[in-house]
Amino acid sequence: MDLLKRRIIEDGTELGTEVVKVDSFLNHQLDIGLFMAIGKEISRRFGHLGINKILTIESSGIGIAAITALYFDLVPVVFAKKTQPNTMTEDFYGAEVKSFTKGTVSVARVSKQYLNPEDRVLIIDDFLAHGEAAMGLCSLVEQAGGTVCSIAAVIEKEFQGGSKKLRDAGYYVDSLAVITAIKDGQITFKD
């Protein structure tokens, strides 16, 4: 997706050789016009799969997932919570996930009432690095007996191996912008 690549180059900041900071448009300040283009592109790539639910993890995936739902006939968006609030009194599905950028491990939780065996789920991940969050979300869907139809990553850092890990586990992954390297302040994309 050329628009997204252009924004990464123009407005992203490289922090070393493994981190790209995109706070100005993706996960601190949200560019809604860009999100609409992202949602439309995700719909173009996955609209034929009979998706009836979108799943993401808090917090930066929520905005993208919500706007993407507009292009999937307003299917429900569910997001996994990383901490158990005192309002989550019902049973939940849980899976450990490690955050690459934060260096923390948490349990992603979704109330059992929001994932079901008849669900055909599109997982949306804002950043795919090592694949921990996406693997955890796949586990939640499978615990519920649902079907993971696909994983849509907005930005993938291919060199960190997350997409390979997911594909090796049998999941279909498609990323809108695939970064192959970050070196000397330059970001290289897969064509």
Describe the structure.
- This protein is α/β, with parallel strands linked by helices.
- The protein is built from six helices and ten strands, in the order αββααβαββββαβαββ.
- It has helices at residues 2-11, 23-27, 32-46, 60-69, 132-143, 162-168; strands at 13-15, 19-21, 53-57, 77-80, 92-99, 104-111, 120-128, 147-157, 173-183, 186-189.
- The strands form three sheets. Strands 4-3-7-8-9-10 form a six-stranded mixed β-sheet, sandwiched between helices.
- β1 and β2 (19-21) form a beta hairpin.
- α3 (32-46) packs across α4 (60-69).
- The radius of gyration is 16 Å and the shape is globular.
- The mean pLDDT is 92.
User: What general outline do the C-alpha atoms trace?
Assistant: globular
How much strand?
25-35%
What is the helix tally?
A: 6
Q: Stretches where pLDDT falls below 50 for ≥5 residues?
A: none
State the end-to-end distance: 10 Å
Helix content: 25-40%
**How are the strands of the biggest sheet laid out side by side?**
4-3-7-8-9-10
Give the structural class.
alpha/beta
Number of strands: 10
Computed CA radius of gyration, to the nearest angstrom = 16 Å
Mean pLDDT: 92
Order of helices and strands: HEEHHEHEEEEHEHEE
Q: Main β-sheet: number of strands, strand sense, barrel status?
A: 6 strands, mixed
Short description:
This protein is about 30% helix and about 35% strand. It has helices at about 1-10, 25, 30-45, 60-70, 130-145, 160-170, and strands spanning about 15, 20, 55, 75-80, 90-100, 105-110, 120-130, 145-155, 175-185, 185-190. It starts with a helix and ends with a strand.
